[in-house]
Amino acid sequence: MRGYSLLLNERKRIEKVHVSASTECEVYGGYDMTSKQRAYLKGLAMTLEPSFQIGKGSLTPEYTESILEGFNKKELIKISVLKNCMDDPKEMAEMLAERTHSQVVQVIGKKIVLYKENKDHKKIELPK
Asked: What is the structure's pLDDT at 116?
């Protein structure tokens, strides 16, 4: 499939990169989510309180590690970005999804919702 893919570089800018027919794009979590699955996860996330907060220190390796540990207990994690954090929440969500091998369910304002399927202790059954 030919087209363009967006990549986030280290300077936090989005670049368009051409994807050739022979290139396979890696999908975190093993598959693409359907809109029905995403809507289901959004519904579950509405009742969740944020498990983590990102402050002015932004994304550090320790913070990423703590989110990875959070995915051992939960499959769906809600993160709140505080007002004193100057980074863009959408860029941070993509970066976290890449680092934790999870999927971005939604970013609304300064709230991020991530999903990562737990093979051992699966709690959320996604619709087909």
From this structure: 92
Range of the domain at 60: 30-115
E-strand ranges in 23-123 read 52-54, 76-81, 103-108, 111-115
Highest mean pLDDT among 9-13, 15-19, 36-40: 36-40
- Give the separation between CA 1 and CA 87, rounded to whole angstroms: 33
Read off the pTM.
Answer: 0.73
Q: What CATH number does residue 79 fall under?
A: 3.30.110.60
Does the residue 71 lie in any domain? yes
Phi, psi for 76 (deg, rounded to 5): -120, 120
In a domain, 60, yes or no: yes
Taking alpha carbons only, the member of 88, 102, 100 closest to residue 28 is 102
**Per-residue pLDDT tens for 79-117?**
999 999 999 999 999 999 999 999 999 999 999 999 998
